[in-house]
């Protein structure tokens, strides 16, 4: 597998290099040059297989020659030891729940696979590295949990003391071992700035710092698997399927684009966004304008005014968009519009949808999943297209208890994985926003 940078100004690299470096040297994002194709028979052969087996079979084709098969199988079964339920809500609509992982968000799918693939390459070469990451909540916990207990990787996660919930904090501080959590007396932007400065600090080069952020191709590829998995599980496969994906940075949605490019018969991908509607506007007009600052909406993991993965979407349709959002070569917009529809859902509609889905189907959903469902309903109303559709629930309702309770009167029950951490001891260090002090801390800690 060879990967190119979306900015087209960096050399092609192997999967291993793309995985370990993250961002291309020209600040572009890595994309695979070629993808394998899965025939109807290939997909049919997955229909009775559990999730980890599907993951193994898909990845063994995508990463052919990059990871040995025996190791890949062990990795897939170790990473995906939880359920991926498909709930039928009516005869042409399913909800796929991606919220059953250890941190109860869909980010577990990507983080757990990426962590294990990194560990695989590092241990083969007897190397180690330190992942340094800033978080405003969910990404940090998924990453910390995913890397927990891996021998060759240490994780240092910085979070703003007052901006994460108690439960989010506990997901990062109760692990200990190779995970260090630092509570920063500042804002998320301060944490981000300190991490960025450390990456470009020549004095820290020898510490082998790496980032695990969402633009890593190692986080994207695993997100194509559940689209193939879900389709293979439908009774009497429909000819085609529609997916609705609650989207912020568009990594999840790009997983669906990859799956479609590997032969999955996806008729339409609905990228459902909240009031940050820069992508629906772009698809309508062809002009791209980011939203600065991004709007605060109930589905807070999707408050993104300039999705980083948009450059990948444009690349796959033949265009070039740089990291600032400037388009130097236009994508095939007709083809893009034919494959992708993007719908913006207001906070009011999000609330109404949580209530309606509960009243009509007795199913609890949280704000991100509600945006996905509403986007699908809007698409159906507009087009009259009743093709079988799967919409994604990306977090457990118990992560947003106040919104769920306000609409349904029901207090969602905590999943076991989150219950377990409630009574655990917390370990964390405390720092301010002074970079010099943070640097000293790293130098002392990482000897
Ligand atoms: C991160 C996140 C999203 C958005 O996913 P993208 O890949 O950034 O589009 C949606 N829902 C939840 C719960 C998330 O944590």
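-> sequence recovered:
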């Amino acid at each position: 597998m060879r990967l190119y940078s979306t900015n087209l100004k960096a050399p092609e690299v192997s999967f291993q290099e793309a995985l370990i470096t993250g961002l291309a040297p020209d600040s572009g994002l890595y994309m695979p040059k070629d993808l394998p194709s899965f025939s109807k028979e290939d997909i049919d052969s997955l229909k009775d297989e559990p999730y980890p087996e599907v993951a193994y079979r898909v990845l063994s084709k995508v990463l052919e020659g990059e990871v040995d098969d025996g190791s890949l199988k062990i990795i897939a079964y170790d990473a995906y030891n939880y359920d991926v339920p498909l709930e039928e809500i009516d005869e042409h609509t399913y909800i796929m729940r991606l919220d059953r992982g250890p941190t109860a968000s869909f980010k577990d799918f990507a983080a757990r696979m990426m962590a294990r693939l990194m560990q695989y390459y590092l241990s083969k070469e007897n190397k180690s590295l330190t992942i340094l990451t800033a978080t405003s909540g969910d990404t940090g916990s998924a990453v910390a949990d995913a890397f927990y207990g891996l021998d060759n990787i240490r994780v240092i996660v910085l979070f703003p003391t007052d901006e994460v919930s108690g439960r989010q904090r506990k997901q990062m501080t109760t692990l200990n071992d190779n995970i260090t959590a630092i509570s920063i007396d500042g804002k998320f932007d301060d944490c981000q700035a300190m991490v960025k400065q450390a990456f470009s600090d020549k004095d820290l080069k020898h510490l082998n710092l790496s980032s695990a952020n969402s633009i890593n191709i190692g986080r994207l590829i695993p997100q194509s698997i559940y689209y193939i998995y879900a389709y293979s599980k439908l009774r009497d496969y429909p000819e085609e399927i529609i997916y609705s994906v609650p989207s912020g940075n568009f990594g999840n949605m790009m997983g669906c684009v990859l799956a479609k490019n590997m032969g999955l018969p996806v008729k339409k991908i609905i990228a459902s966004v909240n009031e940050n509607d820069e992508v629906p506007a772009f698809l309508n007009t062809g002009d791209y304008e980011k939203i600065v600052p991004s709007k605060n909406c109930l589905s807070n993991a999707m408050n993104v005014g300039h999705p980083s993965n948009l450059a990948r979407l444009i690349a796959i349709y033949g265009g070039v968009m740089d990291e600032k959002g400037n388009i130097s070569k236009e994508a095939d917009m007709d083809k893009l519009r034919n494959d992708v529809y993007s719908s913006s859902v207001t906070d009011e509609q999000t609330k109404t949808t949580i209530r309606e889905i509960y009243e009509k189907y007795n199913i609890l959903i949280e704000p991100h999943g509600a945006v996905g469902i509403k986007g699908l309903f809007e698409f159906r109303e507009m087009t009259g297209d009743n093709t079988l559709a799967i919409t994604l629930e990306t977090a457990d309702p118990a992560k947003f208890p106040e919104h769920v309770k306000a609409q349904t009167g029901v207090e969602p029950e905590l999943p076991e994985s989150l219950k377990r951490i409630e009574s655990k001891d917390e370990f964390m260090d405390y720092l301010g926003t002074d970079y010099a002090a943070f640097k000293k801390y790293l130098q002392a800690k990482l000897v």
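The longest strand covers residues 153-160.
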